[in-house]
Amino acid sequence: MSAFRWPVLDEAHQALRSAVAGVPSDGWQQPTPAGRWTVAQVLQHAAADQLAYAARLTGGPGPDYDPFEPSGTIPGSPVELLETALTASAEAFGAVDPADAEVPVPLPPYTLTAARAVEAAALDAAVHAWDIAVASGLRSPLTPALAKALRPVADDVVEPLRGYAFASALEPAADADEADALLNHLGRRADWSG
Questions:
Q1: Are 28 and 110 in contact (CB under 8 A)?
Q2: How far is Cα 84 from Cα 50, in angstroms, rounded to an integer?
Q3: pLDDT for 70
Q4: What is the Cα–Cα distance from 88 to 101, expressed in whole angstroms?
Q5: 139 close to 28: Cβ distance less than 8 angstroms
Q6: CB neighbours of residue 166 within 10 Å
Q7: pLDDT computed for residue 9 by the predictor
């Protein structure tokens, strides 16, 4: 049983679950705001990222494919693929002491404080939930409140990954809310439409 609860991770994981549950059966090959990736590829990437966080925390196995080269073919159920990854991530982070100052993470800087490590995993899940939802014609699960909670970790970890995991930042509109501003900071067009 998990010793610690991380509400921001729970909220981001739930956003990803709801987005995936809302994808229509014929929607898996639709384009997304995540560059050249389809909905299926974003799901594979998001699931692999959560497994990578779990593996860094536990020393257990990570994804069996490169998260940055998803095939777009999901064997079995998309919901099962996601649930396996989210369960592993939640259980691994449940064992992280909030006072830990050096929690291993799969991307630079490779260690973060406990809170920042959790927020990094949550950022990944929440943004990919948004990718999947908007590509599927669903309402965005990235709320302004969740985006506000995730903005500090985005400010801390995104720059070393520009051009690899994140595109160049975009200037937000004058009336942008916290969610749109976060998406723009990550190089996503908040007004994206397929």
A1: no
A2: 9
A3: 97
A4: 22
A5: no
A6: 18
A7: 98
- How many Å apart are CA 56 and CA 189, to the nearest integer? 31
Give the 3-state DSSP-derived string for 39-103, with helices as H, strands as E and coil as C: HHHHHHHHHHHHHHHHHHHHCCCCCCCCCCCCCCCCCCCHHHHHHHHHHHHHHHHHCCCCCCCCE
Residue ranges per domain, the chain? 7-143
Return the DSSP state at 160.
Answer: G
- Provide the pLDDT for residue 165: 84
| Nearest alpha carbon to residue 124 among 54, 171, 73, 191 | 54
| The pLDDT of residue 194 | 79
pLDDT at 1: 44
What does pLDDT average to in each consecutive run of 10 residues of the chain (194 residues)?
84 98 97 95 98 97 93 95 98 97 95 98 98 97 98 95 89 95 97 88
Domain 7-143 has CATH 3.40.309.10: no
* 112 sits in which H/E element: strand 111-112
Instruction: Name the 3-class secondary structure at 38.
Output: strand
Q: Which uninterrupted H or E stretch holds 111? A: strand 111-112
